[in-house]
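F.,

This is the one I mentioned.
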């Protein structure tokens, strides 16, 4: 297994590894269970912006065992700031790769997410997409509170299953709050916060064509595909990422100047 290396960006320690190395790291942890689950988060630009505005959430987010850069703009920023990441490692791609590994290695898998009452439908989709996957699904209510009774009950149920791999598909911040609160109570394995990755993997939501993904414009394809729901996120909220990058660059210059004096 490749040695893990991180780079400091936006007050997060982001894994500076390629996709295949990331998969190897997670596969190793899924097979060699420790005393608690290892938490994976995959920040994109929207996450960085929201974390900047929620210091309490960022303090929690930083506790994840693995932080992979999901968004290509984060990779571009890392290079401009001279802390280069080799490539992006998306939650959607990790989801597919780890499901395939789970089938091959006969892992137990648990998933927390989906619409209430959709468990049987999702199971059928999983068996069609990943035949032989041993997965149990908990679809929480619309009022799901990660730290409330329903969140505790989900953690107890998943702990009893002792899975190698746990997917949490609730979106930021619910998935991270639940995962980082209950990781120590889960008997090892890998706990991945992957948002809408399940919907992309099962074909419930179309993903951007490969040309958009490789060019780093997956966000533009999503905006054009659903402007009614996404215009504010991409056109109003996320441009603040530029200000965050400027702040990071400025702090870096001040630090370098102080070191040189």
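My design for it:
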């Amino acid at each position: 297994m490749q040695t893990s290396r991180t780079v400091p960006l936006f007050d997060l320690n982001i894994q500076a590894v390629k996709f295949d190395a990331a998969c190897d790291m997670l596969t190793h942890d899924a097979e060699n269970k420790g005393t608690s689950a290892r938490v994976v988060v995959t920040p994109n630009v929207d996450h960085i912006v929201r974390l900047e505005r929620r210091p309490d959430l960022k303090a929690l987010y930083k506790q994840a065992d693995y932080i992979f850069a999901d968004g290509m703009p984060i990779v571009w920023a890392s290079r401009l700031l001279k802390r280069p990441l080799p490539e992006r490692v998306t939650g959607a791609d990790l989801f597919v790769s780890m499901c395939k590994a789970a089938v091959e290695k006969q892992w137990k898998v648990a998933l927390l997410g989906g619409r209430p009452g959709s468990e049987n439908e999702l199971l059928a989709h999983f068996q069609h997409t990943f035949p032989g996957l041993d997965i149990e699904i908990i679809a929480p209510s619309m009022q799901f509170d990660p730290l409330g009774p329903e969140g505790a009950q989900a953690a107890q149920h998943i702990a009893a299953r002792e899975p190698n791999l746990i997917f949490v598909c609730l979106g930021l911040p619910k998935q991270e709050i639940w995962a980082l609160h209950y990781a120590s109570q889960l008997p090892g394995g890998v706990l991945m916060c992957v948002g809408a990755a399940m919907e992309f993997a099962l074909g419930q939501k179309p993903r951007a064509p490969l040309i958009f993904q490789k060019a780093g414009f997956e966000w533009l394809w999503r905006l054009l595909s659903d402007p009614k729901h996404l215009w504010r996120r991409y056109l109003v909220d996320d441009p603040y990422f530029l200000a965050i990058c400027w702040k990071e660059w400025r702090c870096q210059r001040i630090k370098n100047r102080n070191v040189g004096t």
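The radius of gyration is 18 Å.

Talk soon.
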